[in-house]
Design brief:
By secondary structure, this protein is mainly α. The protein is built from 24 helices and no strands. It has helices spanning 5-32, 50-57, 59-92, 95-109, 113-124, 129-136, 149-172, 177-185, 190-201, 203-218, 222-228, 235-245, 249-275, 296-328, 347-353, 359-389, 395-402, 410-423, 429-454, 458-466, 471-499, 505-508, 516-526, 531-551. Helix 5 runs parallel beside helix 11, helix 7 (149-172) packs antiparallel against helix 10 and helix 14 (296-328) packs across helix 24. The mean pLDDT is 83. Residues 65-270, 362-550 form the ABC transmembrane type-1 domain. One of its GO terms (cellular component) is plasma membrane. It holds the Pfam family BPD_transp_1.
Length: 562
């Protein structure tokens, strides 16, 4: 049956990713091999390891790289500890409530990283919520919670923990209820069932979550810049500094490549380590966990308490910063970090909506998001049909390539695309920005649309064919209406992902092409006024409203179905 159809439908996505994803990464490799940086020099030069020698011989770069690694490891561990209770809660939630519960994860996930970092600042600042609450009990304020490694770890955990939750949820929801019934019939308490059944069976999800969280946190710079206060440096911050301020794109490329290799090395080590605990997946004998009898009462008593404490901490960390941003947007203070409520005012919203200060940036963000979304849908729909209905050799490898942008650092993409746009000056910056945003959207669009295509009723298509409808009529009258809920959900998620993107966009914006999140990040970095919170509140409400609209058509817990 038309073996060529699967590869043909896969071609548009593959070609786009080769141009807008693989080509910038190749450019990064070439840039890193330059002997010295020349912003206007040719891309391909005589190869040299000078940039890597400079990194290895300079104690500053050496320290920043290792500081980034241990920060990323800490964020990964904390995300796993806090993510497990939330994922377990979602997986055990009754179906009719699960979609609503999923909003706890999806609202922060789809909210701008700058907005979420502003909320963490309000939580940890000298006049922040924590010091206000502790002051009620006569505890002196702690004025050193901001601008240190702990603040950066908290902020990065808040940003990336949702990915850990979704990865763990994938496995926990697939555990058969009969397994729990069998464990219960043998006398296992809920705490023992988790340690001996759910935890081992969730290790594949833990592995995926650890890899994604480490790779993302190791190259992030927005939260580290805002919460580190230049006292904490990460490799992502150095890449942005060298590429945009020092115009040393070769060193920036080498640093990005170092962290890419480091991230891949972590992925390999995590895979090898956790695979040793999952011998049953590879034909080996399982090694059941046997707890000493004297430990079981302790686990049964402390397990539920620890679980609920971690769950409460997770929910507070995910949602409280967003609530603080919303409250601060009405606060009559000049300094945005002053969390104490001094008086109600609407002047910050007046500046946002009436002064027109953000209008140009808002229009740019909408144009980029709509253009990137349109391209993503056009090329992702055929790819979804190729995956769901037309199996072909090499499909698994191709899917892994399509999902690769989720794991490889976006700072590397930014450096590579910046250099390519300098070479191909005839390509407008807007096109380059849209191309990168399509890369950001595609993994989610392909995942969501593939699930929608699998859910189509092929019997309806066969009935239409028996009534004389040709392929085009079947597509327009049967397939498209069946795909509308999935297309709508994908459109909302894709628009939010593009509209809120900061990491790679910061490399490609110009004076006339600055998106709203980048504008917000710049203001939060230099002049933190409550107008940033007013604008952030608008973005939070936009996310909530759009997710509520999506929930009318597609259950939110199925947005991540794979």
């Amino acid at each position: 049956m038309r073996k060529w159809l699967g590869p043909a439908l896969s071609a548009p996505v593959t070609i786009w990713l080769l141009i807008a994803f693989a080509a910038p990464l190749v450019a990064v490799v070439f840039l890193s091999l330059h002997e010295y940086s020349d912003p206007f020099g040719p891309l391909i030069q005589s190869p040299s390891l000078q940039q890597f020698i400079d990194i290895a011989s300079d104690s500053f770069y050496y320290r920043v790289v290792f500081e980034t690694i241990w920060l990323s490891v800490a964020v990964t561990i904390v995300s796993a500890l806090l993510g497990y209770p939330v994922a377990y809660w979602l997986a055990r939630m009754p179906g009719k409530y699960r979609a609503f519960a999923f909003a706890i994860v999806l609202i922060p996930l789809l909210t701008n990283v700058v907005v979420r970092s502003l909320g963490i600042i309000l939580l940890l600042s000298p006049e922040g919520l924590i010091n206000i609450v502790t002051g009620w009990f006569g505890i002196p304020p702690v004025k050193t919670m901001l601008f240190n490694h702990g603040a950066v770890i908290v902020a990065l955990t808040q940003v990336f923990m949702p990915f850990m939750v979704l990865a763990l949820y994938d496995n926990l929801q697939n555990t058969s209820p009969r397994v729990h019934e069998a464990a219960q019939s043998l006398g296992a308490s809920p705490a023992i069932r988790f340690l001996t059944v759910d935890l081992p069976l969730s290790l594949p999800g833990l592995k995926s979550g650890m890899i994604v969280v480490f790779l993302m946190s190791s190259t992030s710079y927005v939260s580290a810049t805002m919460l580190g206060g230049k006292k904490v440096w990460t490799t992502g911050m150095l890449v942005l500094q060298e590429a945009m301020h020092n115009l040393n794109t070769s060193l920036a490329a080498a640093l990005a490549l170092v962290m890419t290799v480091t991230g891949l090395a972590f992925a390999v080590l995590a895979t090898l380590a956790l695979n040793r605990l999952m011998t049953w997946r590879y034909g080996g004998k399982s090694r059941p966990i046997a707890l000493p009898r004297f430990v079981e009462p302790v686990v049964n008593f402390a397990g539920p308490i620890v679980s609920w404490l971690l769950f409460a901490a997770s929910v507070v960390l995910l949602l409280l910063p967003l609530g603080l941003v919303f409250i601060q947007s009405f606060n009559d203070v000049e300094l945005a970090t002053a969390a104490g409520f001094r008086g109600f005012t609407l002047r910050w919203y007046h500046e946002v909506f009436v002064s027109g200060y953000y209008t140009d940036s808002f229009i740019v963000s909408v144009k980029v998001a709509l253009a990137a979304l349109a391209v993503s849908l056009i090329i992702a729909v055929p790819a979804a049909f190729a995956l769901a209905r037309f199996p072909f050799r090499g499909r698994s490898a191709l899917l892994a390539f399509w999902l690769l942008p989720l794991t490889l650092p976006h700072v590397a993409l930014g450096v590579g695309m910046l250099k390519l746009l300098q070479i191909y000056v005839a390509v407008p910056a807007f096109i380059g920005l849209v191309a990168i945003h399509v890369v950001v959207i595609l993994p989610f669009a392909i995942t969501l649309l593939t699930a929608s295509v699998i859910g189509l009723d092929e019997a309806q298509e066969e009935a239409a064919a028996s009534l004389g409808a040709n392929a085009w009529k079947r597509f327009l009258l049967v397939i498209v209406p069946g795909l509308l809920p999935g297309l709508f959900a994908t459109s909302i998620v894709g628009f939010l992902l593009s509209f809120d993107e900061v990491t790679v966009t910061s490399f490609l914006t110009t004076a006339r092409l600055t998106t709203l999140p980048v504008r917000l990040y710049a203001e939060a970095s230099f002049e933190l006024r409550p107008t940033a919170h007013a604008l952030s509140s608008v973005l939070i409400l936009l996310t909530i409203v759009l997710l509520a609209v999506v929930g009318r058509f597609v259950r939110l817990d199925r947005l991540y179905a794979r």
